[in-house]
Amino acid sequence: MLVEPVGGGDLAEAATSSEPPARRAEQFLTLLRRVIPFDGAWLGLADPFHPSYTMLASLDLADPVLECLAGPQGARDMEETGADRLVRPWSPSDMPFPVDELPGWAECLIPAGYRGGLALAVHASGGRHVGFLGLPWAGREAPTPGMRQWLADVVPLLGHAVDPLRSLSAIAGLVQGAFAGVLLHEDGPVVALPGLAGHALLDADSALVPAARAELAAAQVHATFLWPLGGCHAPDGHAQVHVMRVRTALAVRLDAMVLLAPPPHLQGLTPRELQILGLLVRGDSNAQIARALVVSARTVAAHLEHILAKLAASTRTLAAVHAQRSGLYVPWWPS
After folding, report:
1. pLDDT tens across 198-215, in order?
2. Which of 58, 82, 229, 252 is least buried, going by the fewest C-beta atoms within 10 A?
3. CA distances from residue 292 to 146, 152, 196, 238, 315 in whole angstroms, order as listed
4. CA distances in angstroms from 275 to 165, 198, 269, 327, listed in the order given
5. Rounded Cα–Cα distance for residues 92 and 136 (Å)
6. Which residues of 310-335 are buried (b: 16+ CB within 10 A; e: fewer)?
7. Is the pLDDT of residue 240 over 50?
8. Which residues 6+ apart lie within 8 Å of 98 measured at CB?
9. Quick one: 227 and 91 in the same domain?
10. For residue 297, what are the β-bridge partners?
């Protein structure tokens, strides 16, 4: 039964507070307990590319139970019951077979004294699956319709509270004029960044993605460079690319954020000169640049003379430093 009403303002305040996600989650679970009399609570964040969850917050659950819930068996149980996909709260009483036939329950929850409860997949805006909420209790009694409806009504607020991409979207907003962006997963996939459009340059098979990873590996934390639009000769101009290391300390194992923004003033540099600057930044000699671009060394020398004049740099080294610091180069990447 419902035990105590909770105002929507309390939940909204917990969901939108400036506290870290784990603290927001703990506040939310405490408020849930005022309505649903559970004996323990667990909120895990999902990795979109692995069948696993990382605990974000919990109440009154022993470590072995938490380890089980966050492990592969817990994820398999959620998948087998469909609980990781449902938008309505799920209970063991809903299953067509005894709950002890689920390995996770039989090996973990039942020995710990739990036989009933409520569970629900947690989604952020746009229906993106971000986690899983489990509220077990000792008895076998089924949750009331009121409990189910109330939990279904408030879980969108919970999704907003714990969304691990929420803070990253805020960071993306600091890049002036950013019009597209993605997140790079540690294992390779590209993850959409909420609040920004996608772009063909940011597709997983685009040459920009591995180039961005390479530039970030060299810069460690942040890199800014240019990328041609419409082909290597930039018939449609350039986009400015920002790539930065991200660390959420949460379940999604993200490596970097890549954003596209309008280009800065190019100081009269041509697409070819921007390419040559990219090779200078890499440390190539004139001969190496000539081989990469399939041109003569004399042609490279002429381009370098123009580059030094446009950047007001006295040496190629100073030109490379200026280009790297201001992002005025196109990194070399085999087509």
Report:
1. 899 999 889 999 999 999
2. 82
3. 69, 59, 35, 21, 21
4. 34, 25, 10, 12
5. 10
6. bbebeebeebbebbbeeebbbbbeee
7. yes
8. none
9. no
10. none
